[in-house]
Amino acid sequence: MGLLDKLKDKVAGAIPARHEIEDPFDNDDYIPDPRKRGKLVASAEPPDEDMPEKAGYTYGTDSADTPAEAGEESESSYVSEEDAYLMLETDEAGAETEDEGSFALYGGPAGPAGASVGAPTEYAEGGEEGMSFAQAVAKRAGVLFGAEKSRHEPRIEPKTEPEFSDEHKLLIIDPMDALFTKLEETLEDGTRQGSKFVLKGHGISVSPDFEEFEEEGNVRIRFTVSSKKWGWDIVDVCRAKGSDLVSAFDAAVADFTAGLGKLLPTLKFKSDFDTTADFGGKPHKWSVWSGGVSVIGEATPPNDDFFAGVIIDELVKRLGSQRFSVAKILIVKTAGRPVCEVRLNEERVPAAEALLASGIDRKEGASGYRLKQYIFLQQEKSTSREYTHTESEIRGYVVGAAKLFYAYGKRGGIFPRTEYREDLKVKIGDPLLADEIAGFLPELCAEHAFPQISYGEQIVVNAGEDRYRVYKSQLASYNYIKRAVDAELGKSIKNEVYKVLVKSSATYSVILEAGRSGVDLINKRGQIAQNFNFSEGYEPI
Fold first, then answer.
1. How many CB atoms are located within 10 Å of the residue 417 CB?
2. pLDDT over 70 at 275, yes or no
3. Would you tell me how many other CB atoms lie within 10 Å of the CB of residue 423?
4. Contacts of 143 (CB under 8 A, 6+ apart)
5. Is the pLDDT score of 84 beyond 70?
6. How far, in Å, are 181, 321, 458, 489, 502 from residue 24 at the CA level?
């Protein structure tokens, strides 16, 4: 019996159901999906998509950036990177208290499915002679968002002619033009330049993109904020529901302009406050800017710098030599207790979440609310250290390292780790980065294979006689390597390569050893401490 068979005997259900196969290592068709990693706030699993409804409950999902009101009592609530899973109470008869995706929190339930048809043709760009406004809307929407024509067919033969406001008509004709007009009216020093909104004198651009635009009152806009100084983009997804398209559009745009949009023009001015943290035995000085608090629902937002003041120590002690960082705060309250999510450079910070949760007044906004805020951190040049590799360079190195690892592994026998690492150092030309990629790559693949296990925020690095305990987020290379793995699994890093990397990881060995001892690390949601051995002279950057 092979090691994997022993593991399967010892640990029942090792691979989570959402991976859709029983064994990721024995199925050549399996392609890992980084988006399927569960990042739950509570300890229970979210409801299974195929779970049948039962009396008293109904299951629904909605974006983490758009919380849902869950009636009288929320049985459980989660906020993950992409989705919030909600178990909603129903009435005694078992009827749903809220339809999926139609929550009163956003200004009322969605409009009727057959609304908004029949109006003068001249307002509908791209319409044909004799075509009603609604028919042209359907045609226009199909062009803009790739919708199937049949999706709109039930709407083009109305019995009544509803009235449209001029604002509604103009919004339908050119939603992107309406969006840029709103941004120019709201944000200082900004103007449209092609497909981007550029903040003059800031070196910052905003690229908006409609992801949802439904006449019933459902709008979702992705704002990608870029600057050459940062080296990475900030993505703010803003979604709103309203009683009609105009109100939903206005609310979605306001979600951006009142929050992240309010922060951007202030970055060229003096920071809200400064602070200092230690990294590598040296002090590092940081300036902090707090964006506006975007509010949906019934809540009185605190002062813009309130959240930063509460959690700043937990944020900066996770930062290293990087020049720029960004934190995102999301607080969602349904009828139950508030759920807090804090991300620093896209990684969760549980300690900061606990601090915020302990200070929230649970009586405030009893019917539900959502608060969102961005915090920008910039390190002084005197204490920061320029990183010599770009994210795109490291992504290429990671893909090459994975393929090289697979080539060595195909030789059979004991894996030549020393030979592999020395070869990688020659190919990359940076011995320290080669150490990091060789060490982190297999463990990151294992984290994708076994997302139920907790791996902690800190790692220990041994480099000769030196020993460092650092947060993963403090290492510039780790952040880049992790994002490269997330992006390339199932693409440039093929499935057969992924399986070999997982089997070679220390994490996989620990799971096997625990299984032999009768300890189910996966189903028991165990924790694994991670240690790495690098070459003498390694220094964390």
1. 12
2. yes
3. 17
4. 126
5. no
6. 50, 38, 27, 13, 10
DSSP string covering 172-223: HH-HHHHHHHHHHHHSTTEEEETTEEEETTTTEEEEEEEEEEETTTEEEEEE
CA diameter of the chain: 82
Question: Each residue of 290-321: b (16+ CB within 10 Å) or e?
Answer: bbbbbbbbebebeebbebbebbbebbbebbbb
Q: Scan for tokens 């759920």, then name that residue.
A: 339
215: tokens are 């006449």
What 520-526 contacts at long range (C-beta under 8 Å, 24+ apart), as own/partner pairs, is 520/10, 520/11, 520/12, 521/11, 521/453, 522/11, 522/13, 522/14, 522/450, 522/452, 522/453, 523/11, 523/12, 523/13, 523/14, 523/452, 525/43, 525/452, 525/453, 525/454, 526/453, 526/454
In the chain, the amino acid numbered 219 is V
pLDDT tens profile 396-416: 999 999 999 999 999 888 999
* Angstrom distance (rounded) from CA 129 to CA 134: 13
Residue type, 459: I
